[in-house]
Amino acid sequence: MNETLETIWKRRSIRKYKPEPIPEEDLHLILEAARRAPTGSNKQNWKMVVVTDPEMRRKTAEACSGQMWMADAAVILCLVTLPGEGKTNGAIVLDHAILAATSLGYGTCWIGAYDDAKVKAVLEIPDDHGLVCLTPVGVPAEAPAARPRKPRAVLFAENGFDKAMDYELAIG
Q1: Residue 102 to residue 138: CA distance in whole angstroms
Q2: Tens of pLDDT along 8-54?
């Protein structure tokens, strides 16, 4: 199987991290993967706040519905869209960062539970900017098994919404 697919297959939500730093070179590779993500009309209408300071990570975790385990990761990434822009481009950008982190052996977890105003206050994000999601990035302290997925025929339709599509793969 190709390396990209292997990375996608092995990616898991990690909620426990070892107190180890991420080498600067690895962090820069993760950020570069995000920078190279496609955006509509190549607008690159986003900004990423890279939270490395331990106290700032703690405050950010508090603003994310008190999910304090996030602060144990070496870094928290917060994807912000510029005024008047949607979240779709931001999701692609953050996904590129998450897959790059996975390929380098780091854990991540999509964080959608947050208080918009509190995160913006902690990270000094202007009110007219949008938040897409956040993710901690760090050395995993757990290796969860793959979670179940709905059957293919429920998720995919061929040539029309109510025309179930199913297929077989030689791999999981």
Answers
A1: 10
A2: 999 999 999 999 999 999 999 999 999 999 998 899 999 999 999 99
89-110 pLDDT tens trace: 789 999 999 999 999 999 999 9
Higher per-residue confidence, 130 vs 172: 130
Query: Where are the domains positioned within the chain?
Result: 3-145
Q: What one-character-per-residue DSSP string does 11-45 give?
A: --B---B-S-PPPHHHHHHHHHHHHTS--GGG---
Q: Please give the biggest Cα pair distance in the chain.
A: 52
Q: Strand 46-51's sheet: what is its strand order?
A: 46-51, 75-81, 130-138, 107-108
How far, in Å, are 5, 7, 12, 56, 149 from residue 1 at the CA level?
Answer: 7, 10, 18, 40, 20
Per DSSP, the residues of 47-102 read EEEEE-SHHHHHHHHHHTTT-GGGGGSSEEEEEEEPTT--SHHHHHHHHHHHHHHH
Q: Are 35 and 89 in contact (CB under 8 A)?
A: no
The torsion of the CA quartet 46, 97, 69, 123, rounded to 10 degrees, works out to -20
pLDDT digits (tens, 9 = 90+) for 64-93: 999 999 999 999 999 999 997 766 778 999
The domain defined by 3-145 folds into NADH Oxidase (3.40.109)
